[in-house]
């Protein structure tokens, strides 16, 4: 006969797949119980689950170890592999209520946003991490994981896209950012908080209206590698970046470019590189112009309006349009540009994506 102390799984509970990638939530210290240093991505998915017996009251949990390390080692190739895996398992397995991904916090918002754009499913995908290692004093991983699983099995979580659940908050992956390196450090700024998780479970108050999840146009199944998109920063006195080889796109974090920077990006656009500008602080609400919006009628000509016409011989055709990101952080604008470039290189089409997602 088998002897086991593990509680019998309650087969009436919804099923959740936990995909572990590492991070502090899997971190172990040299001196457990201290405030000392630790190695991120040490505990396995099974060990993480075993440390939170309370989980078994809410879900039957299966685990998958995708990787185990710090999230700084996550690459765009891994985003792609993770997205394909999550989408496939949600499509193939009717019995799964949702997926929870454990992740290091440094790059958590980027992986979450990539999944938000590319996992075409109405089932919840929750990304969760911790700021304190599993062996530390008052670790936040167990309570965050419990909250994440409770959101993953909540009927109200359906169609809300990819969410980050940490510190009792449910935040849309579109808005979430790590604003500081302590517990409570994940926020959507003024936006993106969909609800809270209290003792009675999740309480949703809002739903994202930008396109995501099952409505996403970004099908990654036939994408083998993501376009190369660089992220640059503009600053007073800046002369613009130089690249080894030509990227497919560049996202520029800028509040206004110098003339020299502007010339570099214009030349890149003429060479076929899609350039997207994004407000450096991630809150540019109104700058993106909808290419399909009706234009105001031209002002009637007034006396003294006419500038001397330039001779045709010196007229240079305009460079392809610049894309403007709307209310995204620079890192996320770069990700949306990468994903959009899998569909088109036309900056106007890409602008439309930037207005929809
Ligand atoms: N709090 C964390 O998870 C940070 C740990 C590590 N730097 C990572 O991103 O994986």
From TrEMBL:
Keywords (A to Z) from UniProt: Hydrolase, Signal
Record InterPro entries: AsnASE_II, Asp/glu_Ase-like_sf, Asparaginase/glutaminase-like, Asparaginase/glutaminase_AS1, L-asparaginase_C, L-asparaginase_N, L-asparaginase_N_sf
Sequence positions that bind substrate: 71, 105-106
Active site residues according to the UniProt entry: 24
Biased composition regions of type Low complexity, renumbered to the chain: 295-311
Disordered, as annotated region: 285-317
GO-annotated molecular function: asparaginase activity
Superkingdom to which the source organism belongs: Bacteria
Gene3D superfamilies: 3.40.50.40, L-asparaginase, N-terminal domain
One GO term of the biological process aspect: asparagine metabolic process
All residue ranges annotated as the L-asparaginase N-terminal domain in the record: 15-200
PROSITE patterns: ASN_GLN_ASE_1, ASN_GLN_ASE_3
One Pfam family linked to the record: Asparaginase
Family: Belongs to the asparaginase 1 family.
Protein name per the record: Asparaginase
Species of the source: Gemmatimonas groenlandica
């Amino acid at each position: 006969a088998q002897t086991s102390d593990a509680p019998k799984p309650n087969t009436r509970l919804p099923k959740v797949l936990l995909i572990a990638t590492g991070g502090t939530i899997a971190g172990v210290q040299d001196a457990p119980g201290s405030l000392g240093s630790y190695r991120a991505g040490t505990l396995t998915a099974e060990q993480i689950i075993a440390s939170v017996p309370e989980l078994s009251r809410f879900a039957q949990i299966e685990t998958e170890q995708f990787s185990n390390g710090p999230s700084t080692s996550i690459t765009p190739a891994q985003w792609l592999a993770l997205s394909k895996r999550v989408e496939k398992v949600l499509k193939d397995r009717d019995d799964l209520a949702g997926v929870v991904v454990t992740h290091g916090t440094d790059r958590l918002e980027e992986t979450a946003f990539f999944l938000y754009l590319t996992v075409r499913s109405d089932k919840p995908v929750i990304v969760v991490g911790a700021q304190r290692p599993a062996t530390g004093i008052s670790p936040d991983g167990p309570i965050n994981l419990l909250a994440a699983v409770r959101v993953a099995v909540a009927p109200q979580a359906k169609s809300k896209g990819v969410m980050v659940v940490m510190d009792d908050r449910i935040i849309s992956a579109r808005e979430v950012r790590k604003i500081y390196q302590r517990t409570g450090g994940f926020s959507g700024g003024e936006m993106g908080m969909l609800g809270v998780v209290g003792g009675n479970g999740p309480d949703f108050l809002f739903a994202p209206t930008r396109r995501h999840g099952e409505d996403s146009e970004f099908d990654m199944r036939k994408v083998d590698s993501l376009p190369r998109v660089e992220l640059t920063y503009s600053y007073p006195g800046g002369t613009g970046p130089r690249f080894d080889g030509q990227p497919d796109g560049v996202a520029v974090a800028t509040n206004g470019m110098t003339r020299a920077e502007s010339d570099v990006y214009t030349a890149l656009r003429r060479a076929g590189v899609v350039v997207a500008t994004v407000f450096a602080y991630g809150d540019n609400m109104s700058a993106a112009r909808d290419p399909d919006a009706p234009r105001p009628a031209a002002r009637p000509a007034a006396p003294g309006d006419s500038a001397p016409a330039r001779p045709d011989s010196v007229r240079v055709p305009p460079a392809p349009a610049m894309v403007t990101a709307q209310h995204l952080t620079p890192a996320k604008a770069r990700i949306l540009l990468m994903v959009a470039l899998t569909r088109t290189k036309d900056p106007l089409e890409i602008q439309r994506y930037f207005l929809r997602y």
